């Protein structure tokens, strides 16, 4: 069972209502999260402060003095009944250049050894398919993407790094992600992208969106350094 | 940079002589951008921040100064009506204690400093007209780990100049006080009321008992992201994983990681993959913001209805306070 037959509601404090749609990471459950988030946005319901869409749940922050909890639950259930009619625009595919290995991807060699592959095979596999963006979270613009090819599944680092440079492209278990800003982190770093994933002055501020696709491709160190950080977002393609 | 926020002529109002341990610019937070991984940030003690603004005649969500523990020293560069609220960090004006929770008129050359913690952990300084900073995604709050908002996304440092709109100080506001019996009291011990969930079912009956019957001590590991506690380990059911699939977070959520020691989440986190046994109710978030290392907390489960009742009571008081102001 991926999608619950009945959505589960949980309280998160006195201003948070968590809607859980399933108990695993799957495209079907994630699609329902996105549909519900979209429906809520379109509804512009009074008293809703924020919605936080993630892998398999949607957290709704509300002001109980404007919309009482029971009213909120009732209206969310009504919205859920109409979800089937919602359709998404085609996902956008964004191509992300990556300089793999050496100081830019300090874990590439160890990951290759762990997987009994050569570093070149790891790069080829990492670039072998587009990845689905399940959610943006943890920090501004960080995309949680999957699923990695089975041959690439690698555990997290035993001891997280205190500092991971911005642009680091990393993997953990079945997922891959990109650190948009420098931060601590426990994922295995394969390389680095010169593309800026987050810019607070832009609208929208994040390059990537939940529900879209990312395809990595390798670049040389020369290309990395010549990448013009002032250039606009890489062009997205509908697929 | 939005135009609206800079349309008023701005004048230099404060110079930072010493930034103290951690001083940032905060309003009531940045909402609507969590789908891009952006947490709210904002004043950790929103109640104190709101009252400060109301005292000086501002809308309650103007940008204010949030200062932590001690050490902030400011020089007034012009006449300005201001108020200090929040934790009692021994504010001093020109060498004399400054009464908190009321308005004061500073004149050019006045020096205000925060000497040491008496109670609480964070104080708020509101200035008439509000501090002028550009809005980033609809808010002036500093988001430290994201490095944006407030003053270049960073803590204040020596030599920074803070601006306010060029309006004449409204002298009619001088001496306004927030009613004494409405001022929150921050001691070395806090009773935090919580609502169970969303993952209370991941813990044993004994674990839930431990949470509601034990004292926890605030460790030095606390910042704007969270307050890490030390105390009895909270027992988890053996048939569930330590982590969950990452989901959204709210300020006040109590995470219990693998070591069984609770962490209270504050406003600079947006998602997380640890189980949350309960969440502190809105009206007690001020108490969480005012915790400092060494303080002790206890948790008391309440119903969501009770929490909403307490919130209504608080908002009615603030509304009464606003009305009282407007009639003056």
Compact overview of the structure:
Chain A is of the alpha+beta class and 239 residues long.
Describe the 3D structure.
The complex is a heterodimer of chains A (239) and B (328). Mean pLDDT of chain A is 92; it is low at 235-239. Chain A is an alpha+beta fold. Chain A contains 5 helices and 14 strands. Chain A folds into 2 domains: 3-85, Gyrase A, domain 2 (2-Layer Sandwich), CATH 3.30.1360.40; 92-238, Cyclophilin-like (Cyclophilin, Beta Barrel), CATH 2.40.100.10. Helices cover 22% and strands 32% of the residues of chain A. Chain A has helices at residues 27-43, 69-81, 108-115, 119-126, 221-226; strands at 3-12, 16-22, 48-53, 57-62, 92-100, 131-136, 143-146, 161-164, 168-172, 175-178, 183-185, 188-192, 213-218, 237-238. Chain B has 328 residues and is α+β, with helices and mostly antiparallel strands. Chain B folds into 2 domains: 4-183, no CATH class; 189-311, Beta Barrel (Cyclophilin), CATH 2.40.100.10. Chain B is built from 4 helices and 19 strands. A 7-stranded mixed β-barrel of chain B has the order 12-18-16-17-14-13-19. A 6-stranded antiparallel beta sheet of chain B has the order 7-6-9-4-1-11, with no helix packed on it. The longest helix of chain B is centred in the C-terminal third of the chain and has 24 residues, at 304-327. The chains are: A alpha+beta (239), B alpha+beta (328). At the A-B interface, strand 1, strand 2, strand 3 and strand 4 of A face strand 15, strand 18 and helix 4 of B.
């Amino acid at each position: 069972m991926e999608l619950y037959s009945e959505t589960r509601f949980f309280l998160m404090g006195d201003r948070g209502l968590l809607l859980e749609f399933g108990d695993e990471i799957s495209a079907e459950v994630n699609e329902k999260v996105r549909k519900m988030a979209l429906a809520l946005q379109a509804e512009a319901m009074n008293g809703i402060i924020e919605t936080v869409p993630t892998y398999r749940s949607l957290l709704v922050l509300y002001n109980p003095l404007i919309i009482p909890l029971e009213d909120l639950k009732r209206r969310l259930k009504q919205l859920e009944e109409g979800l089937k009619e919602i359709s998404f625009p085609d996902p956008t595919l964004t191509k992300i250049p990556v300089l793999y290995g050496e100081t830019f991807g300090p874990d590439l060699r160890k990951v290759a050894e762990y997987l009994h592959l050569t570093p070149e095979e790891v790069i080829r596999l990492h670039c072998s398919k587009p990845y689905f963006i399940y959610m943006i979270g943890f920090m501004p613009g960080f995309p949680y993407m999957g699923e990695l090819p089975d041959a690439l599944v690698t555990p997290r680092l035993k001891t997280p790094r205190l500092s991971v440079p911005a642009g680091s492209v990393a993997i953990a278990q079945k997922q891959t992600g990109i650190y948009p800003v420098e931060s601590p982190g426990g994922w295995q770093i394969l390389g680095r992208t010169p593309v800026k994933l987050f810019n607070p002055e832009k609208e929208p501020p994040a390059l990537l969106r939940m529900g879209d696709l990312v395809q990595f491709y390798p670049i040389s160190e020369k290309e990395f350094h010549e990448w013009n950080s002032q250039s606009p977002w890489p062009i997205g393609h509908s697929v | 940079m939005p135009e609206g926020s800079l349309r008023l002529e701005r004048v230099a109002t404060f110079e930072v002589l010493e930034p103290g341990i951690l001083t940032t610019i905060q309003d009531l937070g940045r909402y609507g951008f969590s789908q891009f991984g952006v947490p709210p940030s904002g004043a950790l003690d929103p109640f104190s921040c709101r009252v400060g603004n109301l005292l000086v005649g501002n809308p309650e969500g103007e940008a204010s100064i949030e200062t932590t523990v001690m050490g902030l020293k400011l020089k007034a560069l012009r006449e300005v009506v201001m108020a200090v609220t929040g934790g009692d960090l021994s504010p001093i004006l020109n060498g004399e204690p400054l009464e908190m929770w009321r308005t004061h008129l500073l004149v050019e050359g006045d020096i205000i400093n925060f000497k040491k913690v008496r109670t609480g952990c964070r104080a708020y300084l509101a200035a008439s007209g509000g501090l002028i900073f550009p809005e980033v995604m609809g808010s002036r709050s500093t988001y430290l780990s994201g490095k944006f908002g407030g003053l270049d996304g960073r803590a204040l440092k020596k030599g920074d100049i803070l601006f306010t709109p060029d309006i004449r100080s409204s002298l009619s506001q001088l001496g306004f006080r927030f009613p004494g019996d409405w001022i929150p009291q921050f001691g070395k011990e806090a009773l935090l009321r919580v609502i169970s969930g969303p993952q209370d079912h991941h813990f044993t009956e004994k674990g839930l008992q431990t949470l509601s019957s034990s004292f926890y001590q605030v460790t030095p590991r606390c910042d704007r992201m969270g307050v890490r506690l030390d105390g009895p380990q909270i027992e988890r059911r053996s048939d569930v994983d330590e982590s969950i699939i990452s989901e959204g977070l709210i300020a006040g959520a109590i995470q219990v990681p693998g070591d069984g020691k609770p962490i209270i989440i504050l406003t600079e986190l947006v998602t997380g993959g640890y189980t949350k046994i309960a969440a502190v109710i809105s009206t007690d978030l001020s108490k969480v913001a005012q915790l400092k290392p060494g303080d002790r907390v206890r948790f008391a489960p309440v119903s969501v209805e009770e929490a909403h009742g307490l919130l209504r009571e608080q908002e009615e008081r603030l509304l009464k306070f606003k009305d009282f102001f407007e009639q003056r």
